[in-house]
Amino acid sequence: MIDFELLPTEKSTVELAHEIAQNLFRPISRYYDEHEHEDPWDLFDTMWNLRLKGSLTAVGIGAALMVQELCWGDAGLYSAIPTPGLGGAAVRAAGTPEQRRHFLARFTNGKPKWGAMAMTEPGCGSDTAAIQATAVRDGDYWVLNGEKIFVTMGHRALDLSDGFIVVWATVDKAAGRAGIKSFVVEAGTPGMKVEKLEKKLGIKASDTATVVFENCRIPLNNILGKAEIKTKAEGFKGAMATFDITRPVIAAQALGVARAALDLLKEELDKKGIEIRYDLAHNRQTALEHDFMEMESNWRAAHLLMLRAMWQLQGRTPNALEASMAKAKAGRAATLITQKAVELMGPLGYSRKLLFEKFMRDAKINDIFEGTGQINMLIVARRVLGFTRDQLK
Ligand SMILES: Cc1cc2nc3c(=O)[nH]c(=O)nc-3n(C[C@H](O)[C@H](O)[C@H](O)COP(=O)(O)OP(=O)(O)OC[C@H]3O[C@@H](n4cnc5c(N)ncnc54)[C@H](O)[C@@H]3O)c2cc1C
User: Fold this and answer.
1) Residue 265: CB within 6 Å of ligand 1?
2) Catalytic residue positions?
3) Ligand 1 atom with the shortest distance to the CA of 152
């Protein structure tokens, strides 16, 4: 039976996340939107020292709802807080118990740290088979070469802390997807350099880096999963398992921003004395009432898909299809809801006086990273219709 009920401890942590979002994130939201690449150290230290830190690295409905609440506060600041991030998800999904202990233990003590994951390259995003970065075995080491772009938290993981980055590289280009493996590179490893930071449309508090590898030598044990090249399907599975964890989390991020836009819209309508009459027949509603209810139902549908994908994850049942469904729906829903909120508020929606325009800019990324909306729809279509990757491109 599907059960989305939270444990009492999870409930109180989700409530705490909302308070943090309201009292710590919102007051500095606009400042860090307008001061891209500045580091909110007070917030980093506070978040690092909070008990919430452990809960954020867990997988399950409670953790996803916490993410949703924090992104209700500010999606950029949420992405910026010190956690193992996408790199941590990759280690959890594909690492051995020993690797998990070794690479993730650092997140429980010392100074704030970040984790990152680098897959995208100048010539490769959606089509992961096109990865050009290489990993060549040399005795007891792997030697990495290549360039990775748009790495979330690359700078903070590698320059500001002793975090790590999980890098996707090929051990054999001729093997295509099967030759692609992921490797953990720790901050301070010679041959790895953060080359530049992107200026972005939204989530500006989150750093997005270009990281270059030149004869970067890492221990043999830093490969996640096995080094052998298996069949096409098997070899790539470990790396892709990361997305079963991260896609529902991105859906939760999208839902947090969209909820923020809906809540603010309701607040502004209340101030103007405009009521949403839920009990009216469809043909008696105003256009605004119709739009608002459509936004609410779109949000709810995406929310249920996210909860289901997370419920499967915490019950350890396969969730790849539902993870993509949740991500595709929530990314699109958040984009449409936040745009509509700007539209319905008129000039006030477009001005920087309120946060509507920021919500619209912050929402869009959820339809891009961790597989674009189109790519996730493609994955859903393949799985529902029973086509292989080669049959439906
Ligand atoms: C702020 C930000 C943070 C990011 N963080 C990370 C990170 O931490 N790590 C990381 O590795 N990457 C990261 N990325 C990169 C992101 O994952 C890629 O941008 C994304 O996967 C798309 O790849 P691409 O940019 O190469 O676009 P392309 O793959 O070139 O796609 C361009 C357009 O074509 C569409 N398209 C492509 N193929 C198909 C198809 N077969 N069918 C239908 N439509 C298709 C896409 O949906 C898209 O709309 C980040 C990007 C941004 C903007």
Assistant:
1) no
2) 370
3) 8
Residue to mutate, 150, 156, 389, ligand 1, most ligand atoms under 8 Å from C-beta:
150
CATH architecture observed for domain 97-229: Beta Barrel (2.40)
Q: Considering the chain, tell me which residue range(s) the CATH 2.40.110.10 domain(s) occupy.
A: 97-229
Q: Where in the chain is the domain with CATH 1.10.540.10?
A: 8-83
Residue 272 neighbours by CB under 8 Å, 6+ apart: none
Beta bridge pairs of residue 218 = 142
Residues paired with 152 in a beta bridge: 208
In CATH, what number does 8-83 get? Answer: 1.10.540.10
- Closest atom of ligand 1 to 206 CA is 1
Give the position of tokens 């941590």: 88
Separation of 331 CA from ligand 1 center, angstroms? 13
Question: Would the CB of 392 count as within 6 Å of ligand 1?
Answer: no
Smallest CA-to-CA distance from 61 within 343, 306, 359 is with 306
> How far apart are the C-alpha atoms of 37 and 83, rounded to whole Å?
18
> What number does the ligand 1 atom closest to the CA of 86 have?
8
CA 367 to centroid of ligand 1, rounded, Å? 9
Q: How far is the CA of 52 from the centre of ligand 1 (A)?
A: 31
Q: In angstroms, what is the span from residue 305 Cα to ligand 1's centroid?
A: 22
Q: Give the model confidence (pLDDT) of 143-191 as tens digits.
A: 999 999 999 999 999 999 999 999 999 999 999 888 999 999 999 999 9
Topology of the domain covering 234-385: Butyryl-CoA Dehydrogenase, subunit A; domain 3 (1.20.140)
What are the residue ranges of CATH 1.20.140.10 in the chain? Answer: 234-385
User: What is the residue-wise DSSP string for 84-149?
Assistant: -HHHHHHHHHH--HHHHHHHHGGGGSSS---EEEE--BTTBSS-GGG---EEEEETTEEEEEEEEE
Q: What is the pLDDT of residues 30-53, one digit of tens each?
A: 999 999 999 999 999 999 998 665
